[in-house]
Specification:
The complex is a heterodimer of chains A (139) and B (404). Chain A is an alpha+beta fold and 139 residues long. Chain A has helices at 4-16, 21-33, 76-89, 94-99, 104-107, 122-137, and strands at 48-50, 55-63, 66-73, 92-93. Chain B is α/β, with parallel strands linked by helices. The chains are: A alpha+beta (139), B alpha/beta (404). Bound molecules: pyridoxal-5'-phosphate.
């Protein structure tokens, strides 16, 4: 498992290879179509982040300060980006997640997807992931 | 025949590229773009005329006041109100509805009914819920039929001597349904109740004659009619506006203020506390003139042609499901594509320079009715073309391939 910084660098390199927006979104869509990322028993109202546009379910498991996130969304593009966020933040130490600076979002041109106006639940999802880590990190 | 090219030339915003493609703007139901005359009116005002209104004795204030009141007269003519004091300037439809709903808080009691419909925009739901919470009145809801028409039989059954107010939209922003407002108004008056019509989606597309309709309150927004944001209108019959308690207190809305007792100004100023959006109101006149010069029926006819063409073309897309197929519809098409989430369609269309609306359109009860999380909506204005619809259809098909 690489560090959060290393994984972000990897992602930036991968995204650099795409020629245009179509290739980029095709990749995100493929990620979105990959296996369900959350156990159905966690797909409950309590884990639901409601956006006006799409919905995101987020579940976190703590194993000795290492957090594993699983999540899902009803929209494929949202789900693809969820998968990317999980690749960066999941299975990391709580303290690392809490202080992570997610510079890759801007660098791979997905800033718009995580903007307030999209109301797709992603911005809240990142906040939730960090809050969970923050609550754990000092234990 | 209108020359759409000539009309488009008047809208500077339309001539830009988005993500490398020519912009196609199909989100007019949310807000229309502004013609140069409206933009100029705003610039003119701030360049030559800016001053506060109804206060100064000086030249600029007088001139601004005159222009401001000129717009009031234009609105009066635009909707055929009896008097210009029946035209209250607000921030928009939402503000207009809140003004009335707030006033009714103290005019209603337990045992009274307010009736709204299942197809209302949140701004014609929540103010009434708040009104009911405070007054103890009960909120009743007219259901819709599956095609998107109001269930008029159900409405007649809901009406009773308990009904004090009915608040229904003229045209649905999510379904495009044109409601039979004449009938709603007649039936409401039969039981002695008052009726408010949310005209946000109607004034850009249809002729509204408030006296002909005999409507009690009518609300709309300038920004959906080629005018500026932050300007709206509440029309109310003079007698009813006089009965309605003031909404906000402050400057401009008073006759005399002392700590013992304050008396309120006459209409319309009683409801216009504080400095209004003067530039916006003045520019709104240019927007109404723009509509009147073209002719609202010409606009409606052009938009109807676009709706029919879009509907036909959308049917060439596999899995097309229209949401809202009311008998009478205006200016928009709401749809879903089997197996696709509207958000995904919206994101990919944006990448191709096409602006549509996706989501619940601030009308969650409708989404609940159709058991969908949202829809994709194309909504049209006078400057849209069939070629733009063709581009949009091609883009949707491309998105469908990518998402399949
Ligand atoms: C039917 C309807 N009512 C009310 C509104 C609210 O208008 P505004 O946001 O201008 O106050 C809208 C705007 O989307 C609408 O479509």
């Amino acid at each position: 498992m690489g560090t959060i910084v290393a994984i972000q660098a990897e992602l930036v390199e991968e995204f650099d290879m795409f020629e245009d927006w179509m290739e980029k979104y095709e990749y995100i869509i493929d990620l979105g179509k990959s296996l369900p990322m959350i156990d159905d028993k966690h797909k409950i109202e309590d884990n639901l982040i409601k956006g006006c546009q799409s919905r995101v379910w987020l579940h976190a498991d703590n194993d000795n300060g290492i957090i594993t996130y699983t999540a899902d969304s009803d929209a494929i593009i949202t789900k693809g980006i969820v998968a990317i966020l999980i690749r960066v933040l999941s299975k990391q130490k709580a303290a690392e997640i809490a202080k992570a600076d997610l510079v890759f979002i801007d660098k791979i041109g997905l800033k718009e997807q995580l903007s307030q106006t999209r109301a797709n639940g992603l911005l809240s999802m990142v906040k939730e992931m960090k809050l969970y880590a923050l609550a754990l990190k000092d234990r | 025949m209108i020359d759409v090219g000539k009309i488009r030339a008047q809208f500077p915003l339309l001539h830009q590229k988005v993500n490398g493609e020519n912009l196609v703007y199909f989100d007019n139901g949310a807000s229309t773009q502004k013609p140069q005359v409206v933009i100029d009116a705003i610039a003119q005002y701030y360049s030559n005329n800016n001053a506060n209104i109804h206060r100064g004795v000086h030249y600029l204030s007088q001139k601004a006041t005159d222009k401001f009141e000129e717009t009031r007269d234009t609105v009066q003519a635009f909707i055929n109100a009896n008097k210009s004091c029946e035209i209250i300037f607000t921030k928009g439809t939402t503000d207009s509805i809140n003004l009335v709903a707030n006033g009714y808080r103290s005019m209603l009691n337990k045992g009274d009914d307010i009736i709204i419909s299942e197809m209302e925009h949140h701004s014609n739901i929540v103010p009434w819920q708040m009104c009911c919470e405070v007054s103890g009145a009960t909120l009743k809801v007219i259901p819709i039929l599956d095609n998107g028409d109001l269930d008029m039989d159900a409405f007649e059954n809901l009406l009773s001597e308990k009904t004090k107010l009915v608040a229904v939209t003229h045209i649905s922003n999510a379904l495009g349904t044109i409601n039979p407002v004449e009938k709603l108004i007649t039936l409401t008056h039969k039981v002695g109740a008052k009726i408010l019509i949310d005209g946000a989606q109607a004034t850009p597309h249809t002729l509204v004659d408030v006296q002909g309709l005999d409507v009690d309150f009518y609300c709309f927004s300038a920004h959906k009619m080629y005018g500026p944001t932050g300007v709206g209108v509440l029309y109310g019959k003079e007698a009813l506006l006089n009965e309605l308690p003031p909404y906000q207190g402050g400057g401009e809305m008073i006759k005399e203020v002392s700590f013992e007792k304050t008396t309120y100004a006459d209409l319309p100023h009683k409801f216009e506390a504080g400095t209004p959006n003067i530039a916006g109101v003045i520019a709104f006149k240019a927007a109404m003139d723009f509509i009147t010069d073209l002719g609202i029926s010409t606009i409606a006819k052009h938009e109807d042609t676009l709706v029919q063409y879009a509907t036909k073309q959308l049917l060439t897309i596999s899995g097309m499901q229209f949401i809202g197929e009311a008998k009478k519809r205006a200016a928009l098409v709401s749809f879903n594509i089997e197996g696709l989430h509207p958000y995904d369609i919206g994101v990919l269309l944006d990448k191709m320079g096409i602006a549509i609306r996706t989501g619940h359109h601030c009308a969650q009860p409708i989404m609940e009715h159709y058991k969908v999380s949202g829809t994709a909506r194309m909504s049209f204005a006078i400057y849209n073309t069939k070629e733009e619809i063709d581009s949009c259809i091609t883009a949707i098909k491309k998105a469908q391939t990518m998402l399949a």
